[in-house]
Structure formats: structure tokens, C-alpha cells
Amino acid sequence: MHPAPSIIFFTVFSGLGFGLLTFLGFGKPDYSGFTAFIFFLIAYVFAVGGLISSAFHLGNPQRALKAFSQWRSSWLSREGCLAVAALTVMGIYAIGVVFLNTSWTILGLLGAALSLATVFGTSMIYTQITTVPRWSHWTTPVLFILYSLTGGAFLAGQTSIAAPMLLVLGVFQCVYWIIGDKLFSASGSTIETATGLGNMGKVRMFEAPHSSKNYLMKEMVHVVGRKHARTLRIIGVLCLSLLPYLLLVLPPFYHLISLLALLLHIGGALILRWLFFAEAEHTVGLYYGQR
Amino acid sequence: MTQLPTHTEKKLGLVIDLDTCVGCHACVISCKGWNTENYGAPLSDQNPYGADPSGTFLNRVHSYEVTPDEGAAMTVHFPKSCLHCEDAPCVTVCPTGASYKRVEDGIVLVNESDCIGCGLCAWACPYGARELDQAEGVMKKCTLCVDRIYNENLPEIDREPACVRTCPAGARHFGDLGDETSDVSKLVAERGGMDLMPELGTKPVNKYLPPRPKDDQIDILAPFLETVAEEPTGFLGWLDKTLERIG
């Protein structure tokens, strides 16, 4: 699948923003006044910025409000509704924490649950796509929620939670690859089932329907980016998980080192989200003799 | 509404005969010709006369080589457009309600004034039947020529999809696949019509008729046919002998 920058930015930063909101909803960190305002500001800039970024890949973004209407069947619509609900509830909760020095616990917990549900909604946009076997698996929502909670704990300054979660995330990311690498073959779709010609013999693409790349190939048969997948996986996991973990655990705690660790983590997340798309193989590639 | 209807009154669709298709791409062109100037936004081209031309098409013809375990390989031309699936995954993912499946005839359509161009339906389609128009930013797909098949301003003979009407080989058939007595249903039953990627559970309405087995041998009467002269005579005979002598 084509790794569109707007979608990579959307999934990574809205995930981080809603992850931070989840922790803020649980009252972590337990600040009020201006300090709390800064935390909420970061969470909203990330979450809303991510959502706005997603509009950049739309063909007709002026009609984006219509996307809230089909929550009965569409995960994209559900995710939008959940995001608005989470931002509204956490907005009211933030007013209490920032201006009134009171935390409405129930509201905070509801906001945290909605924030996490939004991340789940984002992940389900990809999980529901059965034509991409690598995504269409229960590990995809788990991966997205782990990314969000780890980044959220990090941004909330919860080092004692963030450090072990960095390792859990790194390990699960590797598990995701080990499982995911086998899923396309396991799905049973081949050029033979795609054309229905399998019982006649072995099928091979003889002539393409068009001489240069079309929308389908640009969007769903993105094979170029996979060339450096192995190298990027290693660099990605180092930045996402291992290096930030060592920076948090080994040296005496400084804010600057913590910031460096956070930047590495976000950089790693961006690389690996790029791979999440670039490595995803769509069944339509079979018609073009590719994966 | 992007929820699928539980039942459609008809199942209009195409039956494509892979035995007969000659791969001329006439259906591709007639489809583009009709659909660029009728229902919805035109089908735009990008850089059509440049080095890297591309454009929106609702129907494409692939060609495949099929090699059996024994015997000669054969070429199969393979037209591909929307299969108007009964369990269409492209419809349910749509966040705006722009994509829908009609209850009256089962045609899957896009209401372009509601389409935000997110492209999720194109991702959800296993067959690559949907293309996002790069000029209009809306999703385009086969409408089964909904503006022809019911169009009383057209002569009756033209009230079928443009691809079917134009096919010079008679490889494309249009009808109600929900009606067991229809010509298309009989054709599917007779020729063993098949679904594409049935493992994905999309239940396509369009069916493909497999190529008929090819004759392995040349005609059995061939050895008894009068042979052409093996020995040249006259001037050519003289030339042949002379050249042989020199050579």
C-alpha cells in the first residue's frame, strides 16, 4: 500500500495525542493549573493535528463532515465520531483540572476510555480491510493501542510505566512481523484464484492492461518501498524501543535526555508506520503478477 | 446508506466469456467513451500525450498465459470491471454513505456529491474495480451503464451496458443473474461460470466462463490431405538443382 505522508502523520500523532489523553484522564500526571494546561495543549495539538492531517489525502475534504454519518457500518466513520466524543469529554475534564483545580474522576475515566476507543477505531480502519491480509488480523489493534499507550505514558512523563512498555512494544512489533509475514500466503489468494484459471494450469501475467502505472498500482501495488524493509525494521525498532529504553533507564534522569529519547521514539514510530503501509500487500497486486 | 441490503429484487450483472474474448480492448474504450460524457464526473486522463500517461478507466483487459502441466500454454484475455458483489466490502467501509447497493437491481453505485475521496472503498475491493479520479477527487466505478439500461430515449437494442453492446466477439453478456430462467443464468449453468477470489466471501454477481479445453492434436484427417509439391519443378527445380550443385 502507498505510504501516504498525511496518513502516517495522522496515525502516529493522533495515536500519541489520544494516548496522552488516556493518561491525563487517569489523572497522570496529577498537575493542575498552567502545567496541566501545557499537557492538555500537547495532547490536543497531537490528536487534532493528526486528524486534520488525515484530511489532506481526501479528494474532496470540504465534504468531510459527511464522514460522521455512517457509524453503523464504517470504522472510518466510527473513528471520527469517537474522536469527537473523546475530545469533547476530555475538553470538559480539562476545564476542571486547569481552571477549577478539581478533577472530575468519572469524567476523566470516561474520557480515557473514549480516547483509547478512538485509537482502537483507527486500527480497525486497517483491520477491516480483508484484501490486505497483513492488516486483517487481531494483532493490528493490539499494535496500535500499544503504540498509543507507550507514547502516551512517555508524553505524560510516566517514566516508570513508559520504560517497560517500550520493551513490550518493541517485542510485540517483532511478533507482528513474524505473524504478518506469513499472512498473505495463508490467506489462500493467488493469481490462480484471482483469475479463476487455476484448474487449467499455472497462471502468469502476459500483458498488462495499461502501459504505465495507474491509480490502482500507485495506491495498492507499492513494491519499490519494500527494498530496504529489513534495514528499516532494525533501525525502526532501535529508535522506537531499545535506544529510548536505554536512555530512560541507564543514565541519571535529565529532562534533556528524556526529550532525546522521546524524539527517537517518535522517529522510530514514523519509520515503522511508513513500513506498516509499504509492506502491506493488497490482493489487487495479484492481477498484475505482483504482490 | 452504507449498510448492505439483505435482499435485492434483481441481480443485474455481466457474464464474461474468457473462451471468446479476443483481447481487443473495444469494451475498455466504449466504456470510457460512454461514461466520460454521461453519469457523474468525466473520466479524466493525466498527461495523456506525455511520457507517462494515466487515466481513470472502469474496465480493464489483462492478458494471462496459462501453462498446464502437460501440453501447450494458452493466452487468456481477461476483462475486469466491478463485479457488483452481493456482499460488497467497498460499500460498508464508506464513511459518508456515498457508496451503496441498490435494492431494486443490485447495482453498486457511488453518489459522487457525497464522496469525500478517501479511497477506502478502493482498498476494500479485492479486484481493483474502483479508481479515484485524479481530477475530480471522487471514486469512479462501473455503473453497469445504469443510464443506458433503463434509458427509454435509446433504441431498445442499445439498452445494455456499452461494453456488452460493443463487444465484437460476443464475449460479454448482460442480464439478471438472480433469475434462474434468464439467458445469462442458463449460460453460467451450462458453461460452469465461476467467481473470482471466492475465498474472500464477496459473492460476486458477475461470472466468468472458463476457456473451453483446446484440441491437443491437429485434425485427424490432415494426413490424408493432398500434400503440396515437395519437389520443385520447372525453373525453381532447375534453380534448386543448380544451387545444390554449387553449394
Rg value of chain A: 21 Å
CATH homologous superfamily annotation of chain A: Formate dehydrogenase/DMSO reductase domain
Determine the number of helices of chain A (DSSP H or I, runs of at least 4 residues). 11
Oligomer: heterodimer
How many helices of chain B does DSSP assign?
Answer: 7
CATH architecture of chain A: Up-down Bundle
Structural class of chain A: mainly alpha
The CATH architecture designation of chain B is 2-Layer Sandwich
- Shape descriptor of chain B reads elongated
Give the count of structural domains of chain B: 1
SSE pattern of chain B, N- to C-terminal: EHEEEEHEEHEEHHEHEH
The largest beta-sheet of chain B arranges its strands as 10-1-11
What does this molecule look like?
The complex is a heterodimer of chains A (291) and B (247). Chain A is mostly helical and 291 residues long. In chain A, 68% of the residues lie in helices and 2% in strands. In chain A, helix 4 crosses helix 5 and helix 6 packs antiparallel against helix 9. With 247 residues, chain B is of the alpha+beta class. Chain B has a single domain, classed as 2-Layer Sandwich (Alpha-Beta Plaits). Chain B has a three-stranded mixed β-sheet with strand order 10-1-11. A two-stranded antiparallel ribbon of chain B has the order 2-3. The longest helix of chain B is centred in the last third of the chain and has 13 residues. At the A-B interface, helix 3, helix 7, strand 1 and helix 8 of A face strand 3, strand 4, strand 5, helix 2 and helix 3 of B. Strand 1 of chain A pairs antiparallel with strand 4 of chain B, so a sheet runs across the interface.
